[in-house]
Design brief:
This protein is mainly alpha-helical.
Length: about 90
C-alpha cells in the first residue's frame, strides 16, 4: 500500500499543483502516516529477520532458548529502529 501511495504521490507531483495538493494531503494525513510507519516497521523487521536467518544458515544459535531470544531481538530491534528512523527523519 505504501508503494502505491508513493507512486501516486510522485505522479501527482508531475501532473499539477492542484492534484498534487490533494495527493499530498492524503499521504500526509493520519492514515498515510500510519501506513508509512507500519511499512517502515515491516522493512526493519524483514531486514533483521534476514540477519537472523543468516545466523541460522551458519548453524549458530539453533538451540530453542537462543532461537527464541533471537526472535525477540528481531521484534524489539525492529521497533527500536523504526522509532529511531522516525525521530531522525522527522
Amino acid at each position: 500500500v505504501a508503494a502505491l501511495m508513493i507512486v501516486w504521490w510522485l505522479l501527482a507531483a508531475s501532473t499539477g499543483p492542484e492534484y498534487f495538493a490533494f495527493a499530498n494531503g492524503f499521504v500526509t494525513s493520519w492514515f498515510g502516516d500510519l501506513v508509512m510507519f507500519l511499512s517502515l516497521w515491516a522493512i526493519w523487521y524483514h531486514t533483521l529477520a534476514g540477519v537472523r536467518h543468516l545466523i541460522w544458515d551458519n548453524a549458530k544459535m539453533l538451540e530453542i532458548d537462543k532461537a527464541e531470544m533471537l526472535g525477540w531481538m528481531v521484534i524489539i530491534g525492529s521497533a527500536v529502529l523504526t522509532v529511531f528512523s522516525v525521530v531522525v527523519l522527522w
